[in-house]
Amino acid sequence: MSLELAANDGVIPTEHALAQSPLALRGMTVSYGQTPVVFSVDMTVTEGAMTAIIGPNGAGKSTLLKAALGIVTPLAGQVSVFGRPLASERHRIAYVPQRASVDWDFPTRVIDVVLMGLYRELGLLRRIRGQHRAKAMACLERVGMVDFADRQIGQLSGGQQQRVFLARALAQEADLYLLDEPFAGVDAATEKAIIDVLKSLKQDGKTIVAVHHDLATVADYFDRVFLINTRKIAEGTVAEAFTPENLDRTYGGRLATGQIDQLDLVAV
Amino acid sequence: MSGTEFVPLSLTPLLIGIFSAVACALPGNFLVLRRQALIGDAISHVVLPGIVVAFLVTGVVAAAPMLLGAAAAAVLSVAMIEAIRRLGGIEPGAAMGLTFTTLFAAGVLLLEQSDTSGVHLDVEHALYGNLESLIWLDAIGWQSLVDPSALAELPVELFRVSMALIGVCAFLWVFWRPLVLSTFDEGFARTLGLRTGSVGLALVIVAAVAAVAAFDAVGSIIVIAMFICPPAAARLMTNRLNIQLGWSVVFAVLSAVLGYVFAGFGPLWFGFDNAVSAAGMIATVSGVILGLAALFGPCRKRLGAPAI
Q1: Which of A25, A90, B108, B123 has its CA 20 to 30 A from that of B182?
Q2: What 3-state DSSP class applies to A25?
Q3: How many domains does one find in chain B?
Q4: What's the whole-model pTM score?
Q5: B206 domain-assigned
């Protein structure tokens, strides 16, 4: 009976702690055409932690995030955000898409992109006022991009573009931050700036989930890992789940043994 | 030219040309940025079978059923393009090309096979429209603008393109933010809960309404040119979208006015007797403006070409 009630509320029928998770996925299955990209994946994100989603190219990492956010429609599966349906909790989520997913030649300025993060506040017709601009500038300040506010976005380097996307996510003032490859193709200074911002978010009790490629930095940057190759391979703290056996299963033997040995040292 | 000549003979065609050009150029800004500019081409071609079918069904040349037929055909073509694109998994340009050539060919076939020789319904009219004939016979000069009985006799096309223009402006004003968000970053827009599919569909339907209203008055050549040339030229003038829309309006108005004047008087300056088609000249002028913008516009460089 209590299970039924819970289901009617859109809450996943599971124990209390799980239901309160910032992001819980059950049985997520997504396919493009005939091939499943993500197959029956369960995920329970731990509140206040930084989680890396790790897997080879084409393993469904980005697709999993997109399905969790409703950007792509899953074939099957349930999403709950802070124990409630996605639709009612969207305001608590900020999303940083892959940098390459947009056309940076679009005629707009850096400040305008950050103001897009305030859409929920502004709605269709509310005027952009000084307070909104000040908030956007404060977000640019946190990523070190204040001087670029009036630049056209096409004039930025890849790292600067990524910082602008992060500033837009900060403007959303969310509790859960989902980032798709935030470190892909950025310079070292940007990588440092981004990780500093993410760590300060974590200190404020925010939850962070990022698709991540660079296995060498996993142990430095993240608390938890989620290994995926179409199916879920492992989920847990870095010490528990970021193991040579799990990596071997995730990458299907495509990582050289030497690489894994090195990582093992880092992880332990 | 005095008011007694200008107001009845040139004022209304000029206004209709300007309003049609602006009504198509405004949504064209978003269509060009979304790489959907060909949709104007598609819509203006499928309007022909829509009009012919409406004529065959009703048997009369009346504005209401024909506009309805055209609008229905435009919406049908949008659905067809989406279906071909999704089911076939091909790029939108190919789906548009397929749709409009097929439907336009069907329209020509229908027109030839049916008994429409007695009515004013032909391919040429569809292409060039009838701008020069949209005169205001009841006007006797500028004073007619405040004369209710003369105003009542204004060409109905002027009323229709004005309504279309107002509708386009209202749509862009109210849905500006969703349009910008879903055009720039569709994934992010969806995480905000925006229905980006509906936004895109609404944009295309608004463009279709503008195209049908303009098509009726000025023909498909202007419609196709105005969806692409003023917005594309405007993009080369600025790096900000709201300013780009302003430039596109300036270029659309400039094309309409210069095109109309050149068509009426240009040939005479060169010693020819006859004026040329205003619709063709307006489209040509817009192309020349785009060419000049491409050569001399301040923002020609593609800055944000994909970094990878």
Answers
A1: A25
A2: strand
A3: 1
A4: 0.86
A5: yes
